[in-house]
Structure formats: structure tokens, C-alpha cells
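User: Before I run my own analysis I want an independent prediction to cross-check against. Here's the chain; please return only the C-alpha cells and, at the end, one sentence I can use as a sanity check.
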Amino acid sequence: MSITEIVEKSGLKHIAFIMDGNGRWARERSLPREAGHKKGAETFKQIVRYCKKIGIDCCTVYAFSTENIKRPRHEVEAIFSLLLAYIEEASDEKDIEFRFIGEPAQLTENIGRKTKALEDETRGRPYRLNIALNYGGRAEIVNAVNELLRDGRESITEDDISSKLYTKGCPDPDLIVRTGNETRVSNFLLWQCAYSEFYFSEKMWPDFSASDVDLAVRDFAGRSRRWGGLDKK
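Assistant: C-alpha cells:
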């Protein structure tokens, strides 16, 4: 069975990636951390295109957390430079609707303006890519609740919160993949991951490839998703 057929049969609609290991990949090669981020950006573009190719409807990537701003200034500036370069070419990515989840406008005025312009330009395209930028899962939930309070809500349901999340309009992730041989969530999609399946890879993100996506998808397809219930007999 082809990987596209497996995706369709398994019901995998939304895959999310915690792209971990750029810095360690560079250190192992006696390179500056910025080199790892550059190679990781190339991997990101390849993986996003591949997920679209095999029939996944929505992809979310953890690009820059609210905590990452604490990193050395030269590293943060290198990440911002890679981001802006990608935005310049991203509108040519056919069929991709870009959404920047988090608070990118708080990073720099230029990033805020360019991310908004790309969202507006690509709105309504069939394949959705959420790029988590200046993102934190707890902050997202707090933001959703505050929006509901501003709307005058006195009683709040789960559906209300889901409707105010940065990812609204996109199903919760079926599968979350983390690279870099780490096994934690790191404040990523905390509300949305309630029933996600997790797949952890020992590979550093710059070495992650389409064949590794296939391994994760096949592993997902072999699992039994019970949603808190029992296996069907």
C-alpha cells in the first residue's frame, strides 16, 4: 500500500512537527548554531511539501517559541533572517494557505507586517500550513479565554475555547512528531493535543527526511485510537 493510501485510510488529516535538534546537529559538526538553523530551514521546506504531496490537509510546525527569544542575539537574528527570506518566496508555494500562530507582530514590526501580508495573500488555499511563531501553548489558552471574556461570556465551554485558538478552522493534530531524541511537549499545542498520537525520532531535525515522515505515518496507522473508549470488537 502506498503512503498516500495509508494516509487516506488512517484518517490522518493534520500532522504537527516539533522541529528540534538544529543546534546539536551543528555542534556535532563543529559548525555555528546558525548553520544548523539554515539546514533545518531547508528540511522544513522539503517536509512541508512532502506532507502536502501525500494527502495531508494541514501541517503545523513549531518554528519559534515565546521562550526562544532568550537565546543569544546573533542566533535569534539569524532565525529571523531565515524566516523573512522564506516569506519572500513563500507566496510562490502553490495551494498553501499560510497561518502564523502565536504573536509574530511582537517580535519586530517588519515580521508582523510581512506575516500578515502572506496570510492575506494565501487565504483560502486548500493546504494549510500553521507556522508557530512567538508561540506558547499556555499563552494561547489564556488569549482564547480573554477573548471570550471581552465578548461578555460568563460561562465558557470547550467548544468556545477551541473557537478562539490560533488554530481555529483546522482540526486538532492527529499526529505530533518530535525530532532530536527528546520526549516532551515543550508548551506546544497544549489544548489541541489532548488526543493526539505522538511519535519521537532520534534524528536531529536537519537530518529528518520524507522517509522518516513515512515511518511516522505508518506507525500512526498501526495504532488504535480509542478517544477514551474501548477497542471495537
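Sanity check: The CA atoms of residues 13 and 207 lie 24 Å apart.
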